[in-house]
Design goal:
By secondary structure, the protein is mainly alpha-helical. The protein is about 50% helix and about 0% strand. The longest helix has 20 residues. The termini are far apart.
Length: about 60
Amino acid sequence: MINLPLPAAAKPGIVSCRKKKSEEATFLEDLKDHVDEFIHTSMDEHKSCFKKTIQKVASTSVSW
């Protein structure tokens, strides 16, 4: 299996509620961490993050 680091350009323009644990993590390590974090996050945290994300998307789409 080939483990490649994530390129800097792969970082999203909108800040996620997710906190990346390691900048040196390979794609697969980061993906596994993301899935584990998603599964173990409470529904209230999901709702809060979703609302923040929608607000950020709405504010960026209105500004142009």
